[in-house]
């Protein structure tokens, strides 16, 4: 892959879901629908890919047809062929003409699925009918797939006329705002009571009525986003009210999230003075569909289909006949199945088959058993598994080069496989979704915004990303300070934003995603940005930099001053800022878990903090080298390639500058590892230098070592704080299979030591 890697990755995930689909798996069908809808969102804002957007829109109703037994097989066949073709086309393994032929083969079926009423429940952000009316031929598909950028992810998910129905009566809108706030306050108090009395029917009915009223009133006023959100929560409560789902802590938290979203939407109305145009512009920033899809998924998961419904869907009885049978059932105590058999409306074997389907649905929604284990026991288990990995490596090392029987070799291979499986399983047990702290930060953002009198929407992405629980425990405080910092220093007051031509509603994006062997967490705001001149002025006042050093500082160096203890650009001390402890805490906590933070900012447009963390603190993939008399392990994820440098490839711009090489169109500095590690150095007699080429912080480096040993899984052992303080370029130590000790290199510390 190359350009468009992220896009191709999404399509490959879709192909995997379709390939793994088993007939009758309703949850898997929903997952495929969600993936297609996400794909439409990514493709919609990429120039040159309009035809692929239309194709993806056609496939959504096909995926919905998977939930209908009569259309499931044909729908799966179409999805399998066209999603595979899409992947092949985007990875340049199929021509546009061949792909176009495959699409035209199913053109009639695609139109048929999209026109069926039973499969038209598409999210409002996906306009299938529009795609049908503006159908384009696929034999001239564009061949350019542009690389995915973050801007497209931030575009509005709503159609152009979605907010056109909002009324322009300010008095009515203001009255609705007041009444809706009262209903939400009542619902919140009721929900708290339900935590202690989850089966109280009266309390459930009360909160149901609150959301029903908000839904109805917002629909009358043309506030479709508020109507849809309230409707989703109402549907969830209806399942609880009907006894199909018990109210638990997780479900209550989910309803609270829906209430929080409604409060943000209502505050947006108030912030914009109930002006229709201004409200619509702010509403477009707030994406309600991730929450609605979550509510819908739970509703689908916990809705038990009745025997009559299953038989009608399978075409065994007519819907009109089913209504007559249901009427008879109300007059007697008999079950629907009994009446159908007695009246010779359905065959006994059809009723039995419907009962089996009903039972299989119930089995699929059963929760898996969960056993809680203390952190102490889990930490001990991870340590023991680390020792197991080391010992397995030692056994393999001892047998290396010896003449062993085929049975012994097979046993060693099996031991290695079992050890790897246990290691992966135990490490996964220590991983928890970052949603645990993201949900807390939502409250932090709201409280901080209220305290400062600002209107802010916090958008969350990647809540399902899993992180080592030890990292999770440490990362909350840094993220809390970054969120508060963004609201206080970044986001302007609503009136100032309006004067600057910005939306009155401030937006902060908090996202997490896997990047290589680590995790990348982003806190990005659309505020006023960081003024480097202000930062330098404060740094001079506090004596952190000298005046003659100012010209030598890059923008990255200037922004790094923000993380120094006691540094603050606030003019006065408040409850939120001014004490100079916020970003200092961020740096300190991240250092403790071998993480780092990068800052980028554009004055007047916003600031982006990017936190990069290791996936786990226990076992990493490393590349082992020898420098002097000791072994050193570099993170494998940062290494781009291995290069043998000839002496005549080295050059210097002047006497004082470091040596460089010209490689693949880049001038790359050559760094000698022995200088950092304080090891002895003997220049090779053949004038050939062994080196590792690294990519780090968007820069390239060439590190010269004495010997290249190879890639290994490394069990990271903690080192004493005294050693780490004196040698900040180590993140830990390790024990190799031969019993020797090595040092795990922290790349950021390594480069700082060279400076």
Count of discrete domains: 6
The averaged pLDDT comes out at 79
Q: Which percent range describes the beta-strand content? A: 15-25%
* Name of the CATH homologous superfamily of the largest domain: Histidine kinase-like ATPase, C-terminal domain
Number of helices: 29
CATH topology of the largest domain: Heat Shock Protein 90
Q: Specify Rg, calculated over alpha carbons.
A: 30 Å
State the separation between the terminal residues, measured CA to CA: 35 Å
- Main beta sheet: 5 strands, mixed
Shape descriptor reads: globular
How many individual β-strands?
A: 17
Helicity, as a percent range: 40-55%
CATH secondary-structure class of the largest domain: Alpha Beta
Named CATH architecture of the largest domain: 2-Layer Sandwich
Provide the structure class: alpha+beta
Which strand order spans the largest sheet, edge to edge or round the barrel? 2-4-5-7-6
Question: Outline of this structure?
Answer:
This protein is α+β, with helices and mostly antiparallel strands. β13 and β14 form a beta hairpin.
Task: Explain what this protein looks like in three dimensions.
With 755 residues, this protein is α+β, with helices and mostly antiparallel strands. The protein has six domains: 5-152, no CATH class; 170-301, Up-down Bundle (Four Helix Bundle (Hemerythrin (Met), subunit A)), CATH 1.20.120; 307-364; 375-430, Orthogonal Bundle (Helix Hairpins); 432-614, Histidine kinase-like ATPase, C-terminal domain (Heat Shock Protein 90); 619-754, CheA-289, Domain 4 (OB fold (Dihydrolipoamide Acetyltransferase, E2P)). The chain is built from 29 helices and 17 strands. A five-stranded mixed β-sheet has the order 2-4-5-7-6. The protein has a five-stranded mixed β-sheet with strand order 15-8-9-17-16. A five-stranded mixed β-sheet has the order 10-13-14-12-11. Helix 1 runs antiparallel to helix 4 (72-90). The longest helix has 27 residues, at 170-196. It is globular and about 100 Å long.
